[in-house]
Amino acid sequence: MKENNYFTLSERTTLVSLYRTLLRGLGESLQANDTRLLKQHLKNAIESDALPRDNFGLHPIIKDMQTSLIVMDEMGMRRASVLAIMLHGCVQRSVLPMGEVKNLFGDDVATIINGLVRINQLYEKSPAIETENFRNLLLSFAEDMRVVLIMIADRVNLMRQIRDVEDEEGRLRVANEAAYLYAPLAHKLGLYKLKSELEDLSLKYTEKEMYYHIREKLNATKDARDRYIASFIGPIEEKLREAGLNFHIKGRTKSIHSIYQKMKKQKTTFEGIYDLFAIRVILDSAVEREKMECWQVYSIVTDMYQPNPKRLRDWLSVPKSNGYESLHITVLGPNNTWVEVQIRTERMDAIAERGLAAHWRYKGVKGESGLDEWLTSIREALEHSDGDDLKMMDQFKMDLYEDEVYVFTPKGDLFKLAKGATLLDFAFHIHTNVGSKCVGGRINGKNVTIRQKLNSGDTVEILTSNSQSPKTGWLDIATTSRAKTKIRQALKEISSRQAEFGKETFERKLKNRKFDYDEPVMMHLIKKMGFKEVNPFYQAIAEEKLDINDVVERYVAQLKYETDPLQRAAEEGPAKSADTFNLRPDEELQSRTHFNSDVLVIDRGLKGIDFTLAKCCNPIYGDEVFGFVTSGGGIKVHRCDCPNATQLRERFGYRIVKARWAGKNAGSQYEIRLRVVGNDDIGIVNNITSIISKEQHLMLRNISIDSYDGLFSGTLTVMVDDTSKLELLIKKLRTIKGVKQVSRS
Length: 745
Prior knowledge:
This protein is of the alpha+beta class. The chain folds into 5 domains: 2-205, Hypothetical protein af1432; 216-361, Beta Polymerase, domain 2 (2-Layer Sandwich); 490-572, no CATH class; 586-660, no CATH class; 670-744, Alpha-Beta Plaits (2-Layer Sandwich). The strands form 5 sheets. Strands 1, 2, 3, 4, 5 and 6 form a 6-stranded mixed beta sheet that branches. The chain has a 5-stranded mixed beta sheet with strand order 12-16-14-15-13. A hairpin with a 3-residue loop joins strand 5 and strand 6. Helix 4 runs antiparallel to helix 5 (79-92), helix 11 packs across helix 12 (208-220) and helix 19 packs across helix 22. It is globular, with a radius of gyration of 33 Å. Residues 357-371, 565-570 and 572-598 have low confidence and may be disordered.
C-alpha cells in the first residue's frame, strides 16, 4: 500500500517510461539478477520510508533514473555507475549494508556508492555546498573519476528539474554553484555539451531577463544565420567531395551564456557580436589518416577564404589534457564576416561532446594520464592545505579553467603546464627535489631566472644547487597549485627543523645554568614575548633574531615569578582594598545590553561575528541583507537589492552567506543617502530640512543641491534607526509641494 502512495499518477507514468529506456540502454551489461535485486532493495527502502523527497520536493527514484540516463547517454557509462546511482540512497539511509552491496553487485559498485554517499551527506542540509565543506567535497571528487562524472550528471538533471520550484533562494544557490563548480569541472573533463547546458541554465535562473533577451534575439536572426551558413559551406562541400573525403558539415550557434560573456567582455549589445556561430567539418577517417586529412581540409578552406593566422588553434599536434583534439581556424567569409571553422574526425567529435567517457568507446587510442595527474594534484593540495578555504576554492577554479602551455626538456620530453607557469613551476612539476634546489635555468639556450614565464614550444633546462632551499617569496613566483603546495610543504619542514634546533639550543643553555625546563612557564613566556605559536619563537632563536642569553634571563625571572609566591607578591605591589572596586552602574549595563541586541545573525544562527556594512548600498536595520565573505575572512553585509548583488552572486556565489537582523534596534543609527528631485521653488530646501529636524531619532548629516532649468536635484545624508523610520521619512518628503521624486541611493 505504501508503494502505491509513494508515486503520483504522473510519476508512475514517468517511472515506467524511464525504466524501459534504461533497460534498453544497459542491455547486456546487466548481470542475471541485477534488476530483480535492485527492485527488491528499492521496495524495502520505500516500505521503510528511507527515500524521502529532496529539498525541492523531487522524487528520489525518478531523479536517480533521470541522472542514470544522462550518465548512460552522454558519458557512455553502464552497469556499475547506474546501479550505484540507484542504490546509493538505500546505503546512505542504512537500509542496505555496504557489505551486502559488495557481495551482490561487486566492489566496483560499492566504490562508487561510497563516494556518492560522502557527497550526499554534505548536501543533506542545503541544496548548495557551504564554504567550510568545500574541501570535503573536493576530496570526495578526487577519490574516483566516475563519482565526478555522476555528480556533474546529477547537477545537470537537478538544474533541468528546478525550473518551476517555489524555493527561489535554493534555486539561486544551486545555479550559482553550477556555474562556479560544476560547469568548470565539465569543461576540465571535456564535457562541453553539458558544460554549456549548465552555464545556460545558470544564466536563465540568475539573470532571467538577459537570458530571454538573447534567446529572442537568436530566434529573430535564425533565418538570416541559416542562409549565411548555407552560402558559406556550399563551396567548401563541393571541394571536399572533389578531394574524395568522407565528411559532414554542421553550423553550431554559440551558447547563450557564451554570447552573454562576449557582450560583457566587449561591452557591446547583441548586435555588436558577429561570431554567433561556428562551422564544424567532421571527417569519417581511419585513425592512421586523421591528422593528414584534417590538414588537407585546412588547406582547402584557407585556399577559398582568407585565414587569420593569429586565430589558428592546433590541438591536433598536442591535444589538451582532457583529450580534446581539433583544429580551429578563423577565416574571412562572404560579406567580410569572420567565421570560425573547426576541423575534426568522428572520434575527436565524440570526445569533444562526451569528454573523458568517450575514450572508453575508443580504447587504446588515448590514455587518461593527464586527468589522473590533475586529480592527484587535487589530493596533494587538499592534504597539505594551510586551512584557507577561500584561497583554495579560488585556486581550484583557476586550475579548472586553465589554458595550457607545452614545453620540452633538452632530451625532447613534452610537459603540459598551466598558462602563465614560471620556470619555478616547471622545476616542481619535474620533481620536488629539483624544484627545492632550483636556482635558475636556460630557455632555448638563454639563461633566465626562476621568475621567467614559459611559452609553448620552449626548450627548458633547470639549473640546481645543493645550497639552495625554498624561500617564502617563492609562493609569489609560483602560479600552479602543485608548485605552491610543494613549496608550503618544504617551508613547513624547514621551519620545523629550525624550531627543533632552536629548542635544543635553548634547553642546553638552561642546563648549563642548572635550571630545569618547565613547559607551562615556557608557554607563558612565549605569549608574553608576543608569539602566538611555539615554532616561530624557537625559529627566531635559531635565526638569532632573539638573543638567547636574554631569553634565558627572562625565562629564569618567569620561573621565579610563578614558583615563588613572595617574589610574585613583591612584583605585583600592595593589594587593593575591596572598597576601591566599583561596580558599573546599572544604567550602563542596561545600555550596553540594549545596544548589543541590535545584531546580525550570520548564516545558521551564529551571532557576534565581526562584520562591516558595505558602502556601495549602505544597509540599515530592517533591510533584507546577505553576507559576503571577504578575502580577509571578514563579513561584509550588503542589501539584497544592492547594485553589486547580482555580480557577487554570479561570480562568487560560494562566498555568499545568509544574514538577518535580530533583536530590536534601539541606540544604533545608520547612514543613508536619499536623492530628491523637484521644482526649484523658493523655500523648498527649508521645507525639506524642517521636516527632518522635527523627526525624532533623525539627524541630517549633509545636504547637496544642484539647480538647473527650474528643477533641482539634491542628495541628503541622514542618520536613521531602521527601515520603518526611513519609509516614514520618505513618505513625508513626498508630501512637500514641488517634490517629484524621493529615492534611496
